[in-house]
Amino acid sequence: METFEYSLAGLVLLITYWLLIARRIRGAINGYAFQSVVIGVIVLATYVQSLRLHLLVLALSTFLIKGILIPVVLRRQVQATVYDKRETHYYVGFPTALLIGMGLSIAGFVAANRLEIVKDLVGQPVLGVAVAVILIGFFITMARQDAVMQLTGLLVAENGLLLLGLVMSAGLGLLVDFALLMDVLVGAVVMGFLIARMNATIMSTDTSELTRLRG
Amino acid sequence: MTGQILLVVLLAIPLAGAGATWLVRPVAALHGITAVTHSAVLVVSIALLGMLLNGSPPHAFENLLLVDPLGGVVLLIVGSVGFTSAIYSIGYLHHELRAGAVRPRELRRYYALLHVFVFTMLLSAVSGNLGVLWTAIAATTIASAPLVDFYGSRDPLEAAWKYIVLTTAGSMVALFGFLVLYQDGVHVLGQTYDFSFPVVAGIASRLPAAGALTAFLLVLVGFGTKAGLAPMHSWLPDAHSQAPSPICALLSGVELNCAMLGILRVFALTAPAAGVSHLRLVLVLFGLFSLLVAVVFLISQRDFKRLLAYSSIEHMGLIALGVGIGAPLAVFGAMLQMVNHALAKSLMFFATGNLLLRFRTRAMADVGGLVRTMPATAVLAILGGLAIAGAPPFSLFVSEFSIIAGAVRSNQIIAAAIAALLLVIAFIAIVAPFNRMSFSAPKAVDGVAAEINPVVLVPGYLSLAAVIVFGVWIPGPLHDLLAGAAHLVAP
Lengths: 215, 491
Known about the structure:
By secondary structure, chain A is an all-alpha fold. Chain A has one domain (2-209).
């Protein structure tokens, strides 16, 4: 079972790389949905392994909220014009972005190795992936100019946090997991709302046009 | 039992208010509901604090919710500044409606979100579980970002976007820290335990040292972003200048304190294992750097709301500094500073809100002659400016002086000297512009230049009275509350 979980964790990291260089917003939203489903399967596997009921509930709500609800909300909020737009704006080039992403993965695995954990369900390899995904998610948010892509970066980082939680606090119980998921859902809806306002106000979701406030 | 009921009522009031303001249409009813709910929240908060000080700390649902002195200080702040900001909102929006700047439909959205925002801040104050605490603090951003964007044009939108993206990222870093802290506890208590303050505090000295340090640093950087500590503060001057004035009062006076509460809670839990002196040094460095950055931007400021925003960064830096100094006097000063900052900064946003309604500009150069045209607001702005700058006899002088004196007494002369020097520069940078705006020749205003309405003056004068009274005399119960909080963050 652990080999299965670790392979899926590897897949999560691969999807993160793909999101790092995704050019289209449509692709990025689908990639996020796919990544969320894979994480849901990992959680489901830990449920089968441990038979702790709250993990089953967490797996199902991950499928529902992150795999379906958030992508659907994003597609609705982000209007058709933006949805199909080819996203080419990066503060760095794509090859550089990929290189930085790999550097961040190494940093993530090194950092994860220094964290002392008492192994519960899954161990160090998943922790490494989790930290790497969090770092790359933050990098996507910082380096992308498009608001939808910035939001996707935050959601990716949050997926990393869910994996991190699976390693570090699988015994914590449902309340906190659920609060986190609701936080993510409502946060994504509010950010989607702001993106829609942006689209109406400046006819674009390019945040490089929003740089008037200084000093 | 009474405590449990009161806690549930406390949280139910703003939620009911949010529902009611979302459904009700008449403008007068919207104003009325908001005044009633926020008065009720203030009364229930004081009742809860009364129970705490009488030796029976309220708690509910196996410590998911509880009121201890540290959370109590923040509860007092949310209750009182929430009340004054709600009253100010009524006068402010009444004027904006008549001026045609706001439509009645937008009023419902404003009041509904205001109630949700106050709910999240109350929950931060009364949470007894670290998971609930994180969720509540993270949720304050989500509830308030649409309020920052209330006016809906380009600049507020930019501010709201920066605000939500950066502080959400910050909250995620803090969550990383909370998960590390949980894992630290696993080393002592096993995989499943109750992640509440009393339980974690009971094993605080047995946590692994490296893990405790990691948890603290992650939470400091993460919630430090939300609390506006430099260098993670870049979103703050934008959000705190673009939001409607009553919202600025809450963002600045209350929400920053909620984020600071998150940092202080985790500081208290991790310090015994990670080494109190290490963590204090980190807090001192962040505090002094925040002071420095704030002062640099205060000097060159032309926008009076951004001036207040940088003053908030200065005040948050002082709180971090006071806790970092660690001497009992300094930590007490830091707790008092949280209350004083909330009262004085909200008062200044009320005063400048009146200017903004009258002059429709945030540029200091375009405002003048206030003592003649808006005398009541001018008095607020002048005295409030002196208060936030730390002049005697206002209460911020007492808290800031305690922090510096605590540093001197505990032989941290360098920190004390740097802080004192920066405070003097900040004093001039804050006081001068408000005097200039008040005493210079009046600028042309279209229509009659006069006060807006009585409702936008009362909340400011209430806060001013408190800031003056606390400057000369701290009432016994407040002193006990602050001393209890200081005891919790000086392990």
